Amino acid sequence: MDKILVINPNSTAAVTRGIDEACAPLRMQGGPAVECMTLKEGPPGIETQQHVDGVVPHLTRVVSEAHGDYSAFVIACYSDPGLHALREVTTKPVLGISECGILTALTLGQRFGVIAILETSIPRHLRYMGALGVMDRLAAELPVGLGVTELADEGKTFGRMVDVAKTLRMKHGANVIVMGCAGMARYRKPLQDAVGIPVVEPTQAAVGMAIARVKLGWEQ
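Above: the chain's sequence. Below: its structure in token form.
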């Protein structure tokens, strides 16, 4: 059976568990199977450009070593660390959740808003969105002010996410929301219910695209 490997580039197992749960609706009879792993060499959360750059050699090693065992790879970090470098070490599809989440949002609404974890994450994301050529469709990106490891605290996190999402919708005109961190995965459905517009969980978007790539035989 074909298998897709979803790699959490941070070392926080709780984030990987949330990613694994988010992938559950995409697991189906006949596959491809979806497996999730934690990069033990990664930082607890990828929150700076140095964190992004630092995990690339480890991701390259993982993908190189697993090339023969998997039909596609998903990098489950919203900064898409090493995406293009990883595409050079395998002919299998490699998908980044930021790119896939944004592209999915573009099919669901005219203007998308992004919920970031920290204010300092936003310049990095804006650089990436500029490179993707989607800035004219961005309504705004706003932070919840929490680090990756804090996102598991639902009492602290969910209310902030709702407030930010409502601000993106009502003040900035977003008609679709992208969650800008894989650690937010567990909150997609309740957030969508609370805000009343589509909410994209980017790992789900990337895994859905990976399944299509595997089923249709599209390599890099």
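The first strand starts at residue 3 and ends at 8.
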